[in-house]
Amino acid sequence: MAEPMKIRAQLKGDVAAIRILIHHPMETGLRKDAAGTLVPAHHIHTLTVDVGDRRIVDIHTGTAVSRNPVFAFKAKGAKAGEKVVVSWVDTKGERRTDEAVLA
Amino acid sequence: MNLSRRNLLKNSTATGLLLSLIAAGALRPTRVLAAEWNKAAFESKDMASALKALGAHAATEHRDLLLKLPDIAEDSTLVPVDVISHIPNTRTISILVEKNRNPLSAHFEFSNGALAEVSARIKLAESSIVKAVARADGKFYTVQKEVKVTIGGCGG
């Protein structure tokens, strides 16, 4: 089971500033381990961010997003107390959803 | 006539129709499913074919599309990148690295009040041109910047 994401959701006026830190190796499939064997590709390919029940960003990623990805977004029309829900799915079919509350 | 039987039949037809629409992909439960991962674009091996797979091969430069990157990246596996589009109705932003094995690094689709701006961290295989592409009102715009990668961390 993947570690929980860190989600920071701050409201300034009606603009939500959302910052997400994900724990994920984002292996490209090109890296060799200490024994010289190739580490198979294993990376997040899809990520979604919802505020309240509104989808604000769909993200698709390849292998060239850094290990432990960090993303930041902003969305207008948000209210205090609304939930920010972030989900990801990777190439092994592992997935994780975490949420934070806008404050 | 058996009214409850009528209702049941009517309801099951409606449910059946709904299910077949979902199966056909016409009605997606959007909360769960994101748009399709663009395999052709992500697996493209050069900039031209990645842009083509995104439909962005005719992208033009636009001064309201901003790309912030360091001039020199000390750690090529952790290069911070900010893309901001002030072009009205920007719906998508893509980030591409020319010298990477697969240039397309990430693709963002904005909706429901999201501002067309993103911060992320990407990997560079070597010193390279990095491009951002934005789609607004069906047209594609682009901006690019060169990032130098220092190997050995001497900062030179």
List the helices and strands and how they pair.
The complex is a heterodimer of chains A (103) and B (156).
Chain A: E1 6-12, E2 15-21, E3 44-51, E4 54-61, E5 70-75, E6 83-90, E7 95-101
Antiparallel strand pairs in A: 1-2, 2-5, 3-4, 3-6, 6-7
Chain B: H1 3-23, H2 39-43, H3 47-54, E1 60-61, E2 65-68, E3 72-73, E4 79-85, E5 90-97, E6 104-110, E7 117-122, E8 128-136, E9 139-149
Parallel strand pairs in B: 1-9, 3-9
Antiparallel strand pairs in B: 2-4, 4-7, 5-6, 5-8, 8-9
Structural commentary:
- The complex is a heterodimer of chains A (103) and B (156).
- In chain A, 0% of the residues lie in helices and 50% in strands.
- With 103 residues, chain A is an all-beta fold.
- Chain A is elongated and about 50 Å long.
- Chain B is α+β, with helices and mostly antiparallel strands and 156 residues long.
- Chain B has 2 domains: 1-33; 36-149, Immunoglobulin-like (Sandwich).
- Chain B has helices spanning 3-23, 39-43, 47-54; strands spanning 60-61, 65-68, 72-73, 79-85, 90-97, 104-110, 117-122, 128-136, 139-149.
- In chain B, the strands form 2 sheets. In chain B, strands 1, 3, 5, 6, 8 and 9 form a 6-stranded mixed sheet that branches. Chain B has a 3-stranded antiparallel sheet with strand order 2-4-7, with no helix packed on it.
- Chain B is globular and about 75 Å long.
- Residues 25-32 of chain B have low confidence and may be disordered.
Question: What class would the helix/strand composition of chain A place it in?
Answer: mainly beta
- Which CATH architecture of chain A? Sandwich
Largest interface: A-B, 34 and 34 residues
Please report the number of helical segments of chain B.
Answer: 3
Task: Tell me the major beta sheet of chain A.
Answer: 4 strands, antiparallel
Count of extended strands of chain A: 7
Structural class of chain B: alpha+beta
Number of helices of chain A: 0
Number of strands of chain B: 9
Total domains of chain A: 1
CATH architecture of the largest domain in chain B: Sandwich
Return the CATH topology of chain A. Immunoglobulin-like
Biggest beta sheet summary of chain B: 6 strands, mixed
The unreliable regions of chain A are none
